[in-house]
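Action item from last week, closing it out:
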Amino acid sequence: MPIVSTQRMDLVAGSLPTHQLLKVNGEREPDADLDQYLADVDEKKLGELLRDMMVLRRMDVEATALQRQGELGLWAPLLGQEAAQIGSVRATNDDDFIFPSYREHGVAWARGVKAEDLLSVWRGVTPSGWDPNEVNIACQQIVIGAQALHAAGYAMGIKFDGGNQVALGYFGDGATSQGDVNEALVFSASYQAPALFFCQNNHWAISEPVGLQTRTQLADRAAGFGLAAWRVDGNDVLAVLA
């Protein structure tokens, strides 16, 4: 049997720019496309966003420690994704419905879910931590990418009912390789459903780097489904919010 050597192909350059409104040192960068959406962000709002991210970091550090001590059965850390979660959820309206993965602890907390209710699920003492109808956020989904289909179906229902809400579905870079996510994008585009899919690319799908899953930028995949897409710095809370 012949031995065939394979070589990994280089990453194809992405076509979408990366929006970044804050430099690493905190300096504000102008952005012709996004600045208009931040006109109402004053000093008080900036302080609230910073506080949200700091509280979320503290919660995550504590919960990670509890999991390492055996007090929680599982906890998916969100270290480094505070700005992505807070910036996106603070842009939603109260009647928009959110479908998280297992890592959107900050999104749930910002929506009104108590920290102790978040922990109870991962401790295994309750089947679900909250009533989705009270906070308009579904319980966290462990099956990779399944929540994207839930978001697509909910968004189609909004359209059929003539509503003006949005269904927001979160997933990671690894989930973009799942059939569920691709099916959700097909249905949402075909029905022009009011769905927003938020991919948080932390460059690792459990233990596999994103470079093994795609030859182009993940945001570029949206065009193939007929969906508009934006690529932003996920550590920039203002860019995400806009």
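Closing note: Strands lie at 18-19, 97-99, 167-172, 195-200, 204-205, 208-209, 231-232.
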